[in-house]
Amino acid sequence: MPMTASRNGESLPFDDRNQHKSYEYATLFELEEKLCSTMMRSTVKKLQSTLDYIELRMDAIQPEDTSAARRVYLHLMHAIIRTVYKAGFTLRDMMECDIDPCANMEQFATKQEIHRYLEEICLHICRHMLALRVDKNQRIVWEIKSYIDEHFNQDFGLEHVSELVKCSSTYINRLLKQYTGSTFYNLLTARRIVSSKQLLSLNDWTVCQISNKVGYNNVHSFIRAFKRSEGITPGQYRDLLLYNALELE
């Protein structure tokens, strides 16, 4: 006669019981992965949505069964601690104080209280990681802008800068758009145009010579970029400067 187990008052064959446990473990690991990934890599808003989702899933546990809820939350808390450790931190680093979250969970009487405690820790970690990402992103943007200012008169492109800061071209443009409102090539072009306008006003170099001086290998590319920026060609810009100078005399 096969062994049986009970679920919600009904008798289950042994194999079905094992299958149900496998489903429960799969669900638990899904919650763990979803929570830790969102906490470490996403925004507070998305993390809150994940926490609300977990709380909704926990509604399947009977309100009076606090011990069952505590076991789930303890599993999630251990996963949080492991995730933080793998990222090179400790929970003490994140919370800026000594803390034993697993022991603290034993103090709460309801699953709602346990959930709020887990939520508080997760949100704190998320904000900490967001601050680190912002600092890192600002540093990357500063490095790229500084490199453009120092090397705009040389022949280089986004791929070269991508190797220098060890970020993909797509990520660089997304950061620059977020922090400066411009793409890499727009920033580089703007810096070259500023320099070319100074050279056009201060010496008798030809447009071709100035084109080379500000980093263009092809004078036609320089003229097109200048006209897109200023609405007139470099030659017309120089003529306009001369005309204005004569008007002032």
Automatic annotation (TrEMBL):
The keyword Transcription applies. The keyword Nucleotide-binding does not apply. Keywords: DNA-binding, Transcription, Transcription regulation. Residues 142-240 form the HTH araC/xylS-type domain. Gene3D superfamilies: Homeodomain-like. PROSITE patterns: HTH_ARAC_FAMILY_1, HTH_ARAC_FAMILY_2. SMART domains: HTH_ARAC (SM00342). InterPro entries: Homeodomain-like_sf, HTH_AraC, HTH_AraC-typ_CS, Tscrpt_reg_AraC-type_HTH. This is AraC family transcriptional regulator. It comes from Paenibacillus violae. The lineage of its organism: Bacteria, Bacillati, Bacillota, Bacilli, Bacillales.
